[in-house]
Amino acid sequence: MKDEEADNRLGSYLRARRELVAPAQAGLPPGGNRRVPGLRREEVALLAGISPDYYLRLERGRDKNPSPQVLESLARVLQLDDVERAYLLGLAAARPRVPRRKRPEHVPARVHELLAHLQIPAFVEGRAFDVLASNPMAVALSPRLRPGQNRLRSLLLDPEERAFHQDWAKATADFIAALRTTIGDDTDNPRFVELVGELALSSQRFRTLWARHDVRSLDGGTTTVHHPLVGELRLHRDKLAIDDVILVVYYPDKDSDSDEKLRLLAALSHTDSAGTPHDRPADDPLSKAP
């Protein structure tokens, strides 16, 4: 994350969201000589009922403590949804920024046991979408779900992952928006800095979407994927917080076509699952246990 963005997160967010609102959406005439995308600063100020000078100070980071009333007005003008509005209010909440010590994300032993018993694709991810543990069915669903992989990096940079998702464009937009939501004010977290820096250098798609400052919750939902062996699968996704990590499970509707295909996939991958357990990293001593 750029230093200027980290130091002026409120202003960066206001500017990015302002540029995404078309004049017609705000009830304004489009005009024939607009030099900026979206709304002008003075238009946002007028619609929000604040002075242009004050709004300029907010965008430039010279005033970082607007009242909740001002933020609510800006959220209305910028047409933010509930998640985006909460994010905006959080950006202005006064909180001291203190360095945070990097702490390795740990998968509890009981979660490894749970993964071993689940007969549906299941894995554990960290806050930055790092895959920390997975069961054989998750790896059968996608080899990008092995421990050590990063889901967002795979999604953006692996051609097989692009072919895997029926709606890759939506998946990338959702993941990147969810990452920004997860980061919140933890902008100096080394893992987040590393991942954002890597993807900003290697993916134009990431750079474009990151600049939008979208925020989104990525919890439950339904997705359709194209598996190279069994074809199209329609799967529900649920995420369960366990300590500092997230258990993710994918499952089909009972007795559906996808349910039948998932059972076929389990049968096809049965012989592969007899080797090294998939749910532990290679350097985990338990993965070497007899």
Compact overview of the structure:
The protein has 290 residues and is an alpha+beta fold. It has helices spanning 3-7, 9-18, 41-48, 52-59, 68-77, 82-92, 109-117, 136-141, 151-157, 159-164, 168-183, 190-202, 204-210, 257-269, and strands spanning 122-125, 131-134, 221-227, 231-242, 245-251. Helix content is 44%, strand content 12%.
Question: What would your notes on this structure say?
Answer:
The protein is an alpha+beta fold. Helices cover 44% and strands 12% of the residues. It contains 14 helices and five strands. It has helices spanning 3-7, 9-18, 41-48, 52-59, 68-77, 82-92, 109-117, 136-141, 151-157, 159-164, 168-183, 190-202, 204-210, 257-269, and strands spanning 122-125, 131-134, 221-227, 231-242, 245-251. The protein has a five-stranded antiparallel beta sheet. A hairpin with a 2-residue loop joins β4 and β5 (245-251). The radius of gyration is 22 Å and the shape is elongated. The chain starts with a helix and ends in a 21-residue tail after the last helix.
